[in-house]
Amino acid sequence: AKRLPRAIVVGVKKGGTRAVLEFIRAHPEVRALGTEPHFFDRNYDRGLEWYRSLMPRTLDSQITVEKTPSYFVTKEAPRRIFNMSRDTKLIVVVRNPVTRAISDYTQTLSKKPDIPTFEGLSFRNRSLGLVDTSWNAIRIGMYAVHLESWLQYFPLSQIHFVSGEKLITDPAGEMGKVQDFLGIKRVITDKHFYFNKTKGFPCLKKSESSGLPRCLGKSKGRTHVQIDPEVIEQLRDFYRPYNIKFYETVGQDFRWE
């Protein structure tokens, strides 16, 4: 039957959400929607039945998962997901906000080569160190701010935070914790991964659909735009208080400092 998701990867963009989805769907007890439905941000007026119709068929023993990274920064998403089911498990993949912003910009640049420079978009006034928080690439990384909206509806015990950095250096360890959080057996282990040196990413040795190795698409592992180290320093200073508040709230130090 097609069922509403019991778990949703709600964020964050350029954090490693696609990797988490691809890795978790290698688990026999997980069925995941491959595309991003954007139901709780863009398509909410289409109704829950439309949303359910997109889901893969599952057995009673299987968990349905979807991912749409923009949910994390969408004001209405927490309330809407709560109204669907207050038991929904939420997965948030986070990564150093400065690196995340550069990755976000790199992706946009590949589609729109004539956009302003990263520095130009990051600051309202660079000499005064005034960061432009209205630019989405900067805003998304203010994790502590966005998390507040979620905590109005969901307890921390229902939100699992994945380190985007550890997802690359220790995919089996991070995915082990995801499996524990979902309440399923640790089936995905070290033996599922190999490191692809050209991409600088771990890949699955075999995917659910075929016995072939599965690496993330061409767009993953792009070389980032070179940014002036001083700009990076200014952004680190900007994010520091948000990062510290985030660590304190979730009880986990991601060591981005």
From TrEMBL:
- Cysteine disulfide partners in this protein: 203-215
Enumerate the spans annotated as Sulfotransferase domain.
5-240
Q: Name one GO cellular component term.
A: Golgi membrane
Q: Which residues form the active site?
A: 14
The record's section on Gene3D superfamilies has: P-loop containing nucleotide triphosphate hydrolases
Question: Which domain of life does this protein belong to?
Answer: Eukaryota
Detail which positions bind 3'-phosphoadenylyl sulfate. Answer: 14-18, 95, 103, 220-224
**Keywords, ordered alphabetically:** Disulfide bond, Glycoprotein, Golgi apparatus, Membrane, Signal-anchor, Transferase, Transmembrane, Transmembrane helix
Known EC number: 2.8.2.-
Compartment annotation: Endomembrane system; Golgi apparatus membrane
- Tell me which SUPFAM superfamilies the record gives: P-loop containing nucleoside triphosphate hydrolases (SSF52540)
Q: Which family does it belong to?
A: Belongs to the sulfotransferase 1 family.
The entry's protein name is Sulfotransferase
